Amino acid sequence: MTASCVYLAADAYMVCLTHALSTEREEVMGLCIGEIDTNRAVHIVSVIMLRRSDKRKDRVEISPEQLSFAASEAERLATLMGRPLRVIGWYHSHPHITVWPSHVDVRTQASYQLLDDGFVGLIFSCFNEDKSSKQGQIQVICFQSCNQSPEGEAPMYERLEIPLHIIPKDTVSKPCLDALVELPKILSQEEEEAYSKAQNCVGDQDLLTVVHNGAVYTKSLCHLMDVMSGPLMQSLENRLERNQRKMEALQMKKEQLIKELQAK
Predict the structure, then answer these.
(1) Bridge partners, 104 (sequence order)
(2) Left, alpha or beta for 140 (phi > 0: left; psi -120 to 50: alpha)?
(3) Rounded to whole angstroms, how far apart are CA atoms 114 and 116?
(4) Which end of the chain is more exposed for a tag (fewer CB within 10 A), N or C?
(5) CA distances from 112 to 73, 118, 126, 154, 228 (A)
(6) In sequence order, what DSSP letters do the residues of 204-259 get, joined into one string?
């Protein structure tokens, strides 16, 4: 059975979108944690960002080790939140291209649904421009795969769009905040891995190549600091300051109510 609809918590949506906007050169990916109710509605409450093992422009692959780690994390969150949470979906980005899933995406989704028929896929299309307004455009869809072949014939999968609803939240949950903080670390690990591969691909490299690889690696880390770590830290500091002001206002309201009750 297919999912009837998907409810994506706003803080989980923010983490997915931040991850998708972290690079416009390659696709990024992650796994969704949530639950499915008796009406076949999927509720996504948190996500796990995954480190890319293949940094080719149009490739996103999830290793068995990553799936195992995500399942363990889902069990931990289920115990923490007292809800039957599990890995319920995956997401990836489409930088500079359409939001619709490719034939590879549809086949990948079908393979996940063989394990869990409620499994859903999310695609975040970003770094695109609206042709009429010339403004930046971000699109999100949710989909599943549907086999259109008659029984007994080779499967022929097509996308099935699932209604997606973003559920507003006033706060950011700790699992989503932890995932957000992990993003700079994940991106740094990817750059370090690429640098190590470049250093080891040739046994005896000349000095110019070594210096060049080191300079590219340093530039990449500086770029991450400039466009990701710095703005993320500033955003979290602004949120902390806003929460402190809200706490002060609530404290004043509490004291005012106590005085009014004592006066009666």
Answers:
(1) none
(2) beta
(3) 6
(4) C
(5) 18, 9, 24, 18, 31
(6) S--HHHHHHHHHHHHHHHHHHIIIIIHHHHHHHHHHHHHHHHHHHHHHHHHHHHHH
Residue with tokens 């994940």: 186
Residue 53's pLDDT is 65
Identify whether the C-beta of residue 158 lies closer than 8 Å to the C-beta of residue 113.
Answer: no
For 10, list phi and psi in degrees, rounded to 5.
Answer: -60, -35
- Residues whose CB falls within 8 Å of the CB of residue 32, separated by 6 or more in sequence, listed in order: 12, 44, 46, 47, 87, 88, 89, 90, 91, 120, 122
- In whole angstroms, what is the distance from residue 59 CA to residue 210 CA? 28
pTM over 0.85: no
Residue written as token pair 């903080």: 181
Separation CA 2–CA 118 (nearest Å): 6
- Confidence at 245, pLDDT banded by 50, 70, 90: very high
Query: Computed from CA positions of residues 99, 104, 106, 109, in that sequence, does the dihedral angle turn out positive or negative?
Result: negative
Pair 194, 55: CB distance under 8 Å: yes
Q: Can you give the C-alpha Rg of the chain in angstroms?
A: 22
